[in-house]
């Protein structure tokens, strides 16, 4: 038996972040918690998304306290920010760390019995879908914007937990190349190799299928063709 879990909607293309306003309006969302980090805020990437929200007059609060490897404290602080905000959906702007944190915040909000983040490790038996998450990635390796997995660091135990839950997949992924232009060459190289590794793993796994093979082969070909140039151009 093969199972495929896909998000509702994905956009690809330079400038497609403008579709954020359309999706919010169409889904009837009222207020966002904008989840990101201070680096993206300082380099102007976050402003590109905020401009879309401001022009569409979509209210939002911000939560920027996320580490590169998000911790349980980051998740709990984010949940507190969500509760304080009264937001009914989350916009995650960032790499895998930001999007993973948004997933954890959203799933715990609607499943309070999992307030101990460590209880989400593995395949969690949650009962309700996450608070809706719209993800705008700023890197190109983890594909956190379209997956059901997230990773959280347990600092006091010096380990990471991997959480798997179909109920946490972002409802919309907006993959805008203009949000990735600030990536330094080292980050482009590492995230590109991350994507290549995932594609190869997906192709050679015993659980591979003709449908998944189609995506994996295309990913391998595109990365092989363009990654060196993307790093060199920076």
UniProtKB/TrEMBL annotation:
It holds the Pfam family ADH_Fe_C. Keywords: NAD, Oxidoreductase. GO terms for molecular function: alcohol dehydrogenase (NAD+) activity; metal ion binding. The keyword Oxidoreductase applies. It is an enzyme of class 1 (oxidoreductase). SUPFAM superfamilies: Dehydroquinate synthase-like. Residues 189-233 form the Fe-containing alcohol dehydrogenase-like C-terminal domain. It comes from the Bacteria. Residues 9-176 form the Alcohol dehydrogenase iron-type/glycerol dehydrogenase GldA domain. PROSITE patterns: ADH_IRON_1. Belongs to the iron-containing alcohol dehydrogenase family. This is Alcohol dehydrogenase, iron-dependent. It comes from Fusobacterium nucleatum subsp. nucleatum (strain ATCC 23726 / VPI 4351).
């Amino acid at each position: 038996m093969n199972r495929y879990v896909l998000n509702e909607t994905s956009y690809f293309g330079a400038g497609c972040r403008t579709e954020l306003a359309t999706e919010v309006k169409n889904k009837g969302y009222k207020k966002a918690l904008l989840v990101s980090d201070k680096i993206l805020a300082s380099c102007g990437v976050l402003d590109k998304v905020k401009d879309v929200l401001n022009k569409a007059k979509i209210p939002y609060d911000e939560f920027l306290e996320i580490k590169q490897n998000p911790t349980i404290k980051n998740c709990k602080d984010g949940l507190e920010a969500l509760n304080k905000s009264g937001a009914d959906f989350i916009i995650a702007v960032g790499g895998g760390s930001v999007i993973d944190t948004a997933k954890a915040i959203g799933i715990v909000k609607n499943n309070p019995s999992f307030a101990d983040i460590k209880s989400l490790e593995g395949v969690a038996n949650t009962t309700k879908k996450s608070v809706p998450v719209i993800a705008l990635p700023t890197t190109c390796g983890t594909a956190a914007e379209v997956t059901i997995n997230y990773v959280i660091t347990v600092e006091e135990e010096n380990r990471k937990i991997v959480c798997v839950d179909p109920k946490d997949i972002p409802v919309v992924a907006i993959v805008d190349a203009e949000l990735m232009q600030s990536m330094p060459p080292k980050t482009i190289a590492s995230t590109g190799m991350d994507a290549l590794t995932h594609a190869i793993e997906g192709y050679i796994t015993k659980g591979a299928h003709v449908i998944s093979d189609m995506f994996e082969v295309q990913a391998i070909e595109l990365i092989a063709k363009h990654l060196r140039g993307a790093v060199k151009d920076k």
